[in-house]
Amino acid sequence: MSDPVDKLVTFLAKRDGIDKLVKTFQYVSKLVHYHVEPTRPDLAGRFKQWELASGLSRKAFRTGRFLTGFNALRRNPGPSETFRLLAVLANAGEMVYFFFDHFLWLSRIGVLEARLARRMSFVSAFGESFGYVFFIVGDLILIREGVRKERELRQRKGGDETSSLEDAIGKIRADRVMRLMGVAANVADLFIALADIEPNPFCNHTVTLGISGLVSAWAGWYRNWPS
């Protein structure tokens, strides 16, 4: 197979890869539904069904994912006490999000009472937004530290270590891009979570939700794409 096809196969073999693909389907169909609803209500209904099906399938596929927070903390608790605290708070919020998302999914497919959906949605979204705030802060701190370290390395250039310094700077820049993608995804998902916690005309507007969902999906797509 060609290299791009190999990368696509590897990407779709990951749980996060499938999630970002289906998330793209979900929010593209949301935007198309909004666009064609005034003129093509029959077509809009089909895209609405696609959006709902994609959202429910993502919830089913994320079963058990709340445990990944424990694994993330066990494998990489952070370089400092401050960052470890941020990591604990961020992953705790994410674990609440994924755990209660299971009950939201079950209530929406009729296994649990439908009246629980709103309550589970609120708790899940609150945990999600809580975690995203600390993920964003943590990434911004590491980006700032990376910029500082890059400046220090640039001041040392000019000797025999120029090649190794260039490699180190390249790694810092690559890490910065990944963290910026993470910030973009988390900010976009924060808008979506806020629409559940405190409905308002801006966050709950279809265009805001659609664009936020696609920014999150495509930033995650970039981060998970095989290098």
From TrEMBL:
<keyword id="KW-0576">Peroxisome</keyword>
<dbReference type="GO" id="GO:0005778">
    <property type="term" value="C:peroxisomal membrane"/>
</dbReference>
<comment type="similarity">
    <text>Belongs to the peroxin-11 family.</text>
</comment>
<dbReference type="GO" id="GO:0042802">
    <property type="term" value="F:identical protein binding"/>
</dbReference>
<dbReference type="GO" id="GO:0044375">
    <property type="term" value="P:regulation of peroxisome size"/>
</dbReference>
<dbReference type="Pfam" id="PF05648">
    <property type="entry name" value="PEX11"/>
</dbReference>
<keyword id="KW-1133">Transmembrane helix</keyword>
<feature type="transmembrane region" description="Helical">
    <location>
        <begin position="83"/>
        <end position="100"/>
    </location>
</feature>
<dbReference type="GO" id="GO:0016559">
    <property type="term" value="P:peroxisome fission"/>
</dbReference>
<protein>
    <recommendedName>
        <fullName>Peroxisomal membrane protein 11B</fullName>
    </recommendedName>
</protein>
<comment type="function">
    <text>Involved in peroxisomal proliferation. Promotes peroxisomal duplication, aggregation or elongation without fission.</text>
</comment>
<comment type="subunit">
    <text>Homooligomer. Interacts with ARC5 and FIS1B on peroxisomes.</text>
</comment>
<keyword id="KW-0472">Membrane</keyword>
<feature type="transmembrane region" description="Helical">
    <location>
        <begin position="120"/>
        <end position="143"/>
    </location>
</feature>
<keyword id="KW-0812">Transmembrane</keyword>
<dbReference type="InterPro" id="IPR008733">
    <property type="entry name" value="PEX11"/>
</dbReference>
<keyword id="KW-0962">Peroxisome biogenesis</keyword>
